[in-house]
Amino acid sequence: MLRDEVRNNQTTDHTTSWTIRHWNHYANQLHNIYAFRYTGVKVRQKYQRLKADYQTFKRLQAQTGLGWDPIIGTVVAPDEFWDKVFH
Predict the structure, then answer these.
(1) Cα 7–8–14 angle (5° rounding)?
(2) The pTM is what?
């Protein structure tokens, strides 16, 4: 929903310039789709967490030997990588 908003140029191309009015609008859309009630602040916080997780994932994926398995939905890497990371 947020990606489409940016792609359609209905708002600026930087989510940091979205106001609480924008986030409340997205919260209302989520309520209409899923019947869960969220505040605009909660939607913005979740977006920021997802964005940080995505950036972390992209950094991991850029490492040699890392990839993504769409079937099981997880990062794949050689054992040597995991040994280095967790030891």
Answers:
(1) 55
(2) 0.65
Tokens of 49: 């967490």
HEC per residue, 35-50: CCCCCHHHHHHHHHHH
Structure tokens at 64: 């040699």
The owner of tokens 């789709």 is 33
| Tens-digit pLDDT string for the chain (87 aa) | 877 877 776 655 566 678 899 999 999 999 999 998 999 999 999 999 998 998 888 887 787 678 889 999 888 888 888 888 887
